[in-house]
Write a structure and sequence with these properties.
globular; six-stranded mixed sheet; alpha/beta; Rossmann fold
Length: 219
């Protein structure tokens, strides 16, 4: 059975999400609010028909995946290649702090957003390479027609940009526990839904305005 539908899911909220701090690979747990989001997502996702769930091994992703697994009835498959971008020395900073404290480095980032490598961290191109490798392995494993991938903002945008023609990585912010769906027709992936948070019912993702305008949030 060929994989023809993929559900991309962002983890629930952490306190650093709330504060607008770039997380990268840090082992932040879900907040109480984030756990409530994940439980709402679990009630929604049980009807989607997932046959497998792949997930980042960051703590916030694992905690979200464990909540989903209670409803799905099968064990998530963890893979570090689905982690958020490693933002190295900028971990824990807000965007304003990065701009103010790393003026020249931030200018370099803006000059080459795809290839600039954060000090002690990764570039977007690095993220693109690893998520594409992981995605191709998921297709080869062929665990059913619909699979889920619990991953992060930058990794999701990089994968969509690689798969979906004319996808704009600045086209929208991904909320916590947002569901993004792609479908394959005639070997071409199409975007069905982006940033679906309809399941949250009063637990809407609490955005930091500045991060809404800068999708490479390291979250």
């Amino acid at each position: 059975m060929t994989v023809n539908r993929v559900i991309l899911i962002r983890p629930g909220e952490t306190e650093w999400n709330r504060q607008g701090r770039w997380q990268g690979w840090v082992a932040n747990p879900l907040s109480d609010y984030g756990r409530a989001q994940a439980k709402s997502l679990a009630r929604y996702i049980r009807n989607i028909g997932l046959s497998a769930l792949y997930a980042s091994d960051t703590r916030r992703a694992v905690e979200t995946a464990e909540i989903l697994a209670e409803t799905l009835g099968f064990t998530p498959i963890y893979d570090q290649r689905w982690r958020e971008r490693d933002i190295g020395a900028w971990q824990g900073m807000t965007l304003e702090e990065i701009r103010s404290w790393n003026v020249e480095e931030y200018k370099q980032l803006q000059a080459d957003i795809e290839n600039y490598r954060v000090p002690e961290g990764e570039s977007r191109a690095d993220v693109r390479q690893r998520v594409n490798e992981a995605f191709n392995e998921i297709l080869a494993a062929d665990k059913g027609s619909t699979v889920g991938i619990l991953t992060h903002t930058t990794s999701t945008h990089m994968l969509l940009h690689s798969l979906v023609p004319d996808y704009n990585i600045y086209s929208g912010v991904l909320g916590n526990t947002a569901v993004t769906t792609i479908h394959r027709e005639d070997d071409q992936w199409k975007l069905v839904a982006l940033n679906d948070v309809s399941h949250l019912e009063g637990l809407r993702s609490r955005y930091v305005q500045e991060l809404e305008q800068n999708n490479d949030s390291g979250n």
